[in-house]
Design goal:
This protein is α/β, with parallel strands linked by helices. The chain has helices at 13-24, 39-52, 66-84, 121-124, 137-147, 153-170, 181-197, 203-215, 224-234, 247-258, 265-280, 294-311, 332-336, 350-360, 377-380, 384-387, 421-424; strands spanning 5-6, 28-32, 55-59, 89-92, 95-98, 104-107, 130-131, 283-287, 320-325, 338-339, 346-347, 366-372, 392-394, 400-402, 407-413, 428-429. A hairpin with a 6-residue loop joins β10 (338-339) and β11. The radius of gyration is 23 Å and the shape is globular.
């Protein structure tokens, strides 16, 4: 029976559970819990686990409604008693089912965020709690840098961790700033890609460029000089050459001119930053007030990439397809799908049907799902397993849609004042 790891976002609760399952050779089903989940859906899941002896990791378990949680506690207690008695068959919710003693249920929780409930006591007693702390970033960064092919990984990882610590202390406090484990990981992945693309560059130059590319898009104007000063202090006398985007930059300028707009250098830079962020993050947020050019930014990038692909179909750029929706104009059930209360039939939601149609297309085209509307903890938390390494949309009927690597989630938002840290840490920001 699994423990419930609890702790802040990005401390590796789900990944630790998945790695334990991998180490023991067990199949682990990760499921993202939401307030739409009812006890019947959990009954199906637990029955399947009991038959097969698989594990499940119920992510963000404390988002389920308190009424449903107390029924789940009864279901788990029934299974636990059967396991303790060493039974091979037991009575579960009116059915006699086989019990495989290898089954396991793990739950993960973010304590104290909006839309989270306190676990009822009859559920708490079934689990032995485990607290997850923020890990040692420099050790993780060192191992990842070695894996990406860097030879001087130890000193680079320590400098990079120091940079993130100084940034979180000295830069202004903004809702969309996050200097946690996921941000560190995206920089390391970007650094590895840059090193393979330009093997002749010095390693510290490669890392500086990756850190700038990953962080400068999300900073406000007044924080950029501070960030550059911290980088200069940590890497004195090292200044990376400007990246050359070549034909992409020209295509962006032409696309803006075709729209009867002026190719202002700052805006062209924004579009290039969006392109860079898309390369390393599955979910990206464009943050800014109304009329700051958020929509034009991704329209321009889409048109430029499609133009370059049409010019040279065998080149590095792919055609882009987009679908836009406003998540706040419809209810949660209409967004992700819901059961019909009378007939118990499943009605698919708007976001889930768009994602399913994109998954079914087997073309190499890039596919962006654009959520144009304010972000709040209620609707976007259902996307948590979409935005992290699982890349899976979990629906309230138990269906899990595995998304393709060509897909991206784009959010156009005014601010992130009400988004939880779990969401902010999972997305790239421009």
């Amino acid at each position: 029976w699994g423990p419930p790891p609890a702790g802040p976002a990005g401390t590796g609760k789900t990944e630790s559970t998945k790695d334990l399952a991998k180490g023991l050779g067990r199949f682990c089903v990760v499921f993202n819990c939401s307030e739409q989940i009812n006890y019947k859906m959990m009954e199906k899941l637990f029955s399947g686990l009991a038959y097969t002896g698989a594990w499940t990791c119920l992510d963000e378990f404390n988002r389920i409604d308190i009424e449903v949680l107390s029924v789940i506690a009864q279901q788990l207690a029934t299974i636990k008693n059967a396991l303790e008695d060493g039974k091979t068959e037991f009575q579960f919710e009116g059915k006699r089912i086989t019990l495989n003693p290898r089954m396991g249920v793990f739950i993960t929780m973010n304590p104290g965020y909006a839309g989270r409930t306190e676990l009822p006591d009859n559920l708490k007693v079934l689990f032995r709690p485990v607290a997850m702390m923020v890990p040692d970033y420099s050790l993780i960064a060192e191992i990842m840098l070695y894996a990406e092919g860097f030879s001087d990984a130890r000193s680079l990882s320590q400098k990079m961790t120091k940079l993130y610590k100084l940034c979180s202390e000295q830069l202004s406090q903004q809702d969309h700033y996050d200097f946690g484990m996921r941000a560190v990981k995206s920089v390391l992945v970007m650094a590895g890609a840059l090193k393979r693309a330009e093997p002749h560059l010095d390693e510290d130059i490669v890392l500086i460029r990756a850190m700038k590319n990953a962080n400068i898009p999300k900073f406000l104007d007044e924080d950029i000089p501070l960030f550059n000063a911290i980088v200069t202090d940590l890497f004195p006398g090292r200044d990376p050459p400007e990246a050359d985007y070549g034909e992409l930059e020209e295509a962006i300028k032409k696309s803006l001119t075709d729209r009867k707009l002026r190719p202002v250098p700052n805006f062209v830079l924004n579009v290039l930053q969006l392109y860079e962020t898309f390369e390393v993050r599955f979910g990206v947020m464009i943050v800014g007030p109304t009329m700051s050019g958020k929509s034009i930014c991704h329209h321009t990038l889409r048109d430029s990439l499609t133009t370059l692909h049409n010019k040279d179909p065998k080149g590095n750029f792919q055609k882009v397809k987009t679908e836009v929706l406003n998540p706040k104009s419809i209810s949660m059930g209409e967004l992700y799908g819901q059961d019909n209360e009378i007939s118990q039939e499943w009605n698919d939601g708007l976001a889930s049907s768009i994602m399913r149609s994109f998954v079914n297309e087997e073309t190499p085209d890039k596919k962006w799902v654009i959520f144009d509307g304010p972000v709040d903890a209620l609707w976007i938390e259902n996307m948590n397993t979409v935005l992290d390494d699982n890349m899976t949309l979990c629906l309230a009927n138990g269906e899990r849609i595995k998304l393709r690597p060509q897909m991206r989630m784009l959010f156009e938002v005014q601010d992130l004042a009400v988004a939880s840290p779990a969401t902010v840490s999972r997305c790239g920001m421009v």
